């Protein structure tokens, strides 16, 4: 039981992290200069006369990319960098201090794990090059006592960060609702009322980036993910059949739509596959905040998104948050496989 960040620096990749050739990133996909850029949306405009323009930009980004970068989002640089520093300090702590949080039990409120297993069924499971601190981060008062107490600043800084990002996510969802012609408060309540999850992902320097990945290709399962990716590249998004790199922007958030949102919007907005590549020069840390539904609530296409016309028939059946999680685990985050589990096949 050991985290990758506590390994002595290897000169070659241990066998259990070497992916089959067809699953490895191509050499040209490891460059930082992949050409297509994600839309960058200035959210400050949504506070005034530019609101309609911002909403239009979010809708366009959601339909074409499923992703965008948000700037002037209202979360203070001190809040973002303060928590990132505390999280980085957590991974620098001695191995024994981190490993007291180690667990492979998925339902724990806070756990550290390493090298997520691939979906291969053979006995020698292959692993991805990532350490992760996974915790429930909101509502803060209810969950704070589960968080690591070391380093000393961790809980205080996470509390500020979690509240600020939660407020940002709700602002974004109000803009999305307006863009879809829904009531601005449509996504408030049970659709976003579950305990918010956070993955603090740490990708140590990798001796052979062309042989492995940090995270497999997947779509996120819930309604919205807000990511602080720091200043080291690695996140890649599938766009028109190829992988494009998401260039880091200081204090920007990368926002992406999840499978839950795609089904609630009856396919109008898209949940796009993404992955993480590693590099040999620098460690990378990202902080992903995932807005979740209440597990027992009913989820399905919003009534305003469907009507009697053939082209607007509901594409997906209703389901619960628990069913969504079970389907996600069964399909290992594969977008098409999961959507098929909920798809309605209409007869003419």
UniProtKB/TrEMBL annotation:
Superkingdom in the source lineage: Eukaryota
Domain Fe2OG dioxygenase positions: 193-293
Alphabetized GO MF terms: metal ion binding; oxidoreductase activity
Gene3D superfamilies in the record: B-lactam Antibiotic, Isopenicillin N Synthase, Chain (2.60.120.330)
Cofactor field: Fe cation
UniProt keyword terms in alphabetical order: Iron, Metal-binding, Oxidoreductase
Alphabetical list of InterPro entries matching this protein: DIOX_N (IPR026992), IPNS-like_FE2OG_OXY (IPR044861), IPNS-like_sf (IPR027443), Oxoglu/Fe-dep_dioxygenase_dom (IPR005123), Plant_2OG-oxidoreductases (IPR050295)
Family: Belongs to the iron/ascorbate-dependent oxidoreductase family.
Name of this protein: Fe2OG dioxygenase domain-containing protein
Lineage per the UniProt record: Eukaryota, Viridiplantae, Streptophyta, Embryophyta, Tracheophyta
């Amino acid at each position: 039981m050991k985290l990758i960040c506590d390994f002595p620096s290897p000169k070659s990749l241990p066998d259990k992290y070497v992916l089959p050739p067809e699953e490895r990133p191509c050499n040209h996909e490891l460059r930082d200069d992949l050409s297509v850029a994600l839309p960058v949306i200035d959210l400050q405009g949504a506070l005034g006369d530019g609101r309609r323009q911002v909403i239009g930009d979010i809708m366009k980004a959601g339909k074409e990319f499923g992703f965008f970068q948000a700037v002037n989002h209202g979360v203070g640089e001190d809040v973002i960098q303060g928590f990132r520093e505390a999280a980085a300090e957590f991974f620098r702590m001695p191995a024994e201090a981190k490993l007291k949080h180690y667990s492979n039990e998925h339902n724990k409120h806070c756990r550290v794990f390493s090298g997520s297993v691939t979906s291969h069924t053979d006995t020698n499971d292959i692993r991805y090059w990532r350490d992760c601190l996974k915790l429930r981060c909101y509502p803060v008062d209810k969950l704070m006592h589960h968080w690591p107490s070391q380093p000393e600043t961790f809980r205080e800084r996470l509390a500020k960060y979690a509240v600020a990002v939660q407020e940002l996510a709700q602002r974004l969802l109000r803009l999305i609702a307006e863009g879809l012609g829904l009531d601005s408060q449509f996504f408030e309540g049970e659709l976003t009322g579950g305990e918010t999850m956070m993955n603090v992902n740490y990708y140590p320097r990798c001796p052979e980036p062309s042989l492995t990945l940090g995270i497999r290709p997947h779509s996120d399962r819930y309604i919205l993910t807000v990511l602080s990716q720091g200043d080291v590249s690695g996140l890649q998004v599938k766009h028109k059949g190829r992988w494009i790199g998401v260039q880091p922007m200081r204090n920007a958030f990368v926002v992406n739509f999840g499978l839950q949102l795609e089904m609630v919007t009856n396919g109008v907005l898209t949940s796009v596959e993404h992955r993480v590549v590693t590099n040999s020069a620098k460690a990378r840390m990202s902080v992903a905040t995932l807005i979740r539904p209440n597990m027992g609530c009913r989820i399905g296409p919003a009534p305003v998104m469907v009507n009697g016309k053939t082209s607007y028939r509901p594409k997906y059946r209703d389901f619960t948050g628990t069913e969504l999680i079970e389907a996600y685990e069964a399909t290992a985050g594969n977008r098409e496989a999961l959507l098929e589990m909920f798809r309605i096949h209409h007869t003419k």
